[in-house]
């Protein structure tokens, strides 16, 4: 079955079983490898992407639910040459250790800050709770998200999800 899938602003026609998890389509069909396979059962958050403007666990989201919806991956937040505010903040705060969880953390945080870039640290902590970091860089991740909020408030048009 062919499904029209809009990812990072580009429409793709994907020929795959409708039950195929979005994560596999992103990685195998579209070669977007930012979202990671962690647990495969929606418990670690490494696979987090945004569908429309909400954080979604792509390892448990079947392709059939995505026709006509907007998918944004970490690749859609910016580029190497021009990182988006979330990416820039993670770089500046050196929030990644091994980096495996970071794309999922960024996407969950992006969904939060798009609604309100002035959220409290407590709200950030609560929102990121479904995402795990085995390296223990949670404090730097929290600082990076707060910095991203600052960057987004300073320049509301300066980047963000497509």
Automatic annotation (TrEMBL):
Q: Which GO terms describe its molecular function?
A: 2 iron, 2 sulfur cluster binding; metal ion binding; oxidoreductase activity
**Alphabetical list of SUPFAM superfamilies matching this protein:** 2Fe-2S ferredoxin-like, CO dehydrogenase ISP C-domain like
Q: Does the UniProt entry include the keyword Oxidoreductase?
A: yes
Task: Tell me where in this chain the 2Fe-2S ferredoxin-type domain is found.
Answer: 1-77
**Sorted alphabetically, which Pfam families does this protein's record hold?**
Fer2 (PF00111), Fer2_2 (PF01799)
Q: Do you know which PROSITE patterns this protein is assigned to?
A: 2FE2S_FER_1, 2FE2S_FER_2
What are the entry keywords? 2Fe-2S, Iron, Iron-sulfur, Metal-binding, Oxidoreductase, Plasmid
- Matching InterPro entries: 2Fe-2S-bd, 2Fe-2S-bd_dom_sf, 2Fe-2S_ferredoxin-like_sf, 2Fe-2S_ferredoxin-type, 2Fe2S_fd_BS, Beta-grasp_dom_sf, Diverse_Oxidoreductases
Show the PANTHER family listed in the entry.
BLR6046 PROTEIN, OXIDOREDUCTASE WITH IRON-SULFUR SUBUNIT
* Full protein name: (2Fe-2S)-binding protein
